[in-house]
Design brief:
By secondary structure, this protein is mostly beta strands. It is 5% helix and 40% strand. The protein has helices spanning 47-55, 325-334, and strands at 7-8, 60-63, 75-79, 83-87, 94-99, 103-108, 110-111, 117-121, 124-127, 131-133, 142-146, 151-154, 158-159, 175-176, 181-183, 186-190, 193-199, 202-205, 209-212, 223-228, 233-238, 241-247, 263-266, 269-278, 286-298, 301-306, 315-316, 321-324, 341-345. Strand 25 and strand 26 form a beta hairpin. 43% of the residues are buried.
Length: 350
């Protein structure tokens, strides 16, 4: 079963690393807390599970600080037009043309006093009439203090149901907003979909969530990173212990040329901020200036921050693993070093 995700795509090449053996851990079949193990479709609540939900209503985590780091104070602009004339001054003479593409952002050096022009190259100005400034996402992941059950982010605004497989009922059961965090106390399969108990009489279908499991998909020694293209999330591990987790955007698994392929990689190069571009000559051409915190693990693929979208939890890249700038900075500062393993996997973790 595949989660339904909004999908846009990016490019990837696959080169297995020799000599890196995977030691697969037993994936937990208990998709919740042991106290709620007796929850079933016929018994959607128990006194013991209800008491647990009162005692532990939220995941025991701490939010990663919002921090734009190396791009703090910078502005980036996107143009609706593919071809943007550049002038020698505001309202000046056209000197050249900037090929913007549909997915391109330029760094703004300065704006004119009236706010209608931006200098995007030294001595070259563009009209802002058909332009939009980037608004970096304020979403951040979490450091994990303690974890004895799965937790999840809502990836859509969603009303919950009173029973697994039941009708959504905002008024009686409640609702969650996109990026809200919740514990997963129990799981019941109804038809082809899993339904997750996330609060007292609050059931959510799996397609609305990105779930982080307490048991890792495999185990490596030391610090490593797991990226689930199924759940669209990333977890930083110390051995078998999850230490940090966040939502990401990877490439489309259904489109081979844009896929973030499964495999075991090592981080091989770092770049604090620099350009990214690709798909020249096609409708998918993109050129992005000052992309922050590149951590390359597969030649042209990298963990990196993005300032141009807020679509974490959905497929939305050209094969790289997109993170909020804050999360990318946290990994850069605290976790990822040369040869850190990155394990990309696409199966549902149960």
């Amino acid at each position: 079963m595949l989660n339904i995700r909004t999908r846009v795509m990016f490019v990837v090449l696959f080169t297995p690393l020799a000599g890196l053996a995977l030691v697969h851990a037993g994936l937990t079949s208990a998709q919740g807390h042991p106290t709620c193990a007796n929850i079933t479709y016929e018994t959607p609540q128990t006194p013991e599970c209800n008491a647990l939900m009162v005692a532990q209503p939220y995941p025991d985590v701490t939010s990663i600080p919002y921090d734009l780091g190396v791009i703090e104070g910078q502005d980036f602009v996107y143009f609706d037009s593919d071809e943007v004339p550049l002038y020698n001054a505001p309202d000046g003479k056209v000197m050249e043309t900037f090929t913007a593409g549909r997915s391109s952002y330029a760094n703004v050096i300065q704006t004119s006093e009236d706010g209608e022009w931006a200098e995007i190259r030294l001595g070259r100005w563009a009209s802002l009439e058909n332009a939009h400034f980037a608004e970096p996402s304020t979403f951040t992941g979490v450091s994990i203090n303690r974890m004895d059950m799965p937790f999840a982010w809502a990836i859509y605004d969603v009303c919950t149901s009173l029973t697994p497989g039941g009708t959504r009922n905002c008024q009686q059961s409640g609702s969650f907003q996109r990026y809200d965090l919740m514990n997963v106390y129990a799981t019941v399969t109804v038809g082809e979909w899993d339904w997750h108990l996330v609060g007292p009489r609050q059931w959510v279908e799996q397609t609305n969530l990105s779930i982080v499991y307490a048991t890792p998909p495999t185990v490596f020694s030391g610090r490593w990173v797991g990226v689930s293209t199924y759940e669209q999330n990333l977890v930083a591990y110390e051995g078998d212990r999850p230490m940090m987790a966040t939502l990401v955007s990877t490439g489309d698994m259904d489109e081979e040329r844009w896929r973030t392929d499964a495999g075991v990689w090592e981080v091989e190069m770092f770049w604090e901020a620099g350009p990214m571009e690709g798909a020249a000559g096609s409708d998918d051409f993109y050129a992005l200036e000052d992309v922050p915190y590149h951590m390359y693990f597969n030649w042209r693929e990298a963990l990196h921050g993005v300032y141009w979208h807020d679509n974490f939890g959905y497929y939305w890249s050209h094969g790289c693993v997109n993170l909020s700038v804050s999360d990318a900075k946290w990994l850069w500062d605290n976790w990822v070093i040369l040869n850190t393993r990155v394990y990309v996997y696409d199966e549902k973790q149960v």
